[in-house]
Design brief:
Layout: H1 3-17, H2 28-37, E1 40-41, H3 42-48, H4 53-65, E2 69-73, E3 80-84, H5 86-112, H6 117-130, H7 133-146
Antiparallel strand pairs: 1-3, 2-3
């Protein structure tokens, strides 16, 4: 299981332990945003969360199935406005506390690492600015292809799920 999936599974387990059936970690940010800003179109909500309209439409549909939000026609026939239900509003104080606790736990975990994650990401970004990932892949592909398609670095010898 990838790192992010593992962390999200732990958050989901926490929700289940607290009796929050049907609530997924990906619901927290949109629910909190709606609580603070009020009803919004799906497009506006997606933009405010830096998500795609398509991805957020799927999240809204899943939240609607769990009676956390409802959608109503927007100002024109093409838009839908998302608003919290009573159940969604009631969850927000816990979700805000969980969000802060998650940030605190991640910061504490980061302090335990030999290299801070933010420093690592900054260093990776700087290196990729010097020489892009496409260029790096092409270089390795050229070397592995020169050795033939059955060289020791072929796709079947690696774990493709780890990308």
């Amino acid at each position: 299981m990838a790192l992010q999936e593992r962390m999200e599974a732990d958050i989901a387990a926490l929700y289940a332990e607290r009796g929050l059936s049907g609530v997924r970690p990906r619901f927290a940010y949109p629910l909190i945003r709606l609580a603070h800003r009020g009803p919004m179109t799906i497009r506006d909500l997606a933009e405010s969360l830096d998500r795609t309209h398509s991805a957020l439409s799927q999240t809204v549909a899943a939240m609607r199935e769990e009676d956390l939000v409802e959608t109503v026609p927007g100002p024109d026939a093409r838009t839908r406005v998302v608003r919290l239900t009573e159940r969604g509003r009631d969850l927000v104080p816990f979700l805000e506390a969980e969000w802060r606790a998650t940030e605190d736990a991640a910061e504490a975990l980061d302090a335990e690492l030999p290299v801070h994650l933010a420093d690592y990401i900054e260093a990776m970004t700087a290196r990729l600015a010097q020489r892009g990932f496409r260029e790096r892949i092409a270089e390795h592909l050229e070397h592995s292809w020169d050795n033939g398609p059955e060289s020791e670095g072929d796709a079947e010898s690696g774990d493709e799920d780890e990308r």
